[in-house]
Amino acid sequence: MKKKHTLSPLEIQLRNARLERQAAGTDPALHSARLALKSFQSQRLAATHADLMRGDTYDAVLFFLDELYGTHDLTQRDVDLERIAPTMLRVLPADALQTMTDAMSLDALAERLDTAMARLLGPEFTEQQYVEAYRQAMTRADRERQLDLVQNLGDSLSELVRIPMLYGTLVLMRGPAKMAGLGSLQRFLERGFNAFRKMKKPREFVDTIIRREREILARSYARDPDPFAVT
Hints:
mainly alpha, single chain
């Protein structure tokens, strides 16, 4: 009798994110609402962190905006990741594997939070309605968990980019990844790695974003009339 495969934490988070996106995609109204929400959040984040969208932090901001709040179809990336997950579990060093798991945990949680908010908001909403849904859709603990995961991911990437052989290995993967039909995943990995690799002070970048977002979270739950007015 064939032994049943037990999913790893990485595989569980990959599956959760994919299933959340798939479920939303079967409901046209919800899909439209989620796209509107992601677009709003991307614009809001770009405005909050406008000062970081220049110099050596520019690519890192775009990476977070596109990968977390972009409106493009992530179906192929989901397929690629789930297909290559068993190989990653075998060959990645523990710290790199934890970084991937944190990234996918963040992805799965973000999708769940977005779906909950989109159900309340629909495709058209005001900033005030957004803030109200931000408080109502999920618990404050979920919001804080999301920022904890962003912090962990940013800190991990800041450390990983300092390992010369890891970048070399990633570059060498381009050809095999393309031949194996994993081009979407390869672009995702290289984009994140290169964005952090370019920065002189990646930890300072991460700390700045987290500080501002935690202040927005606190002000939103305190019912501040202008929670996004942070510096």
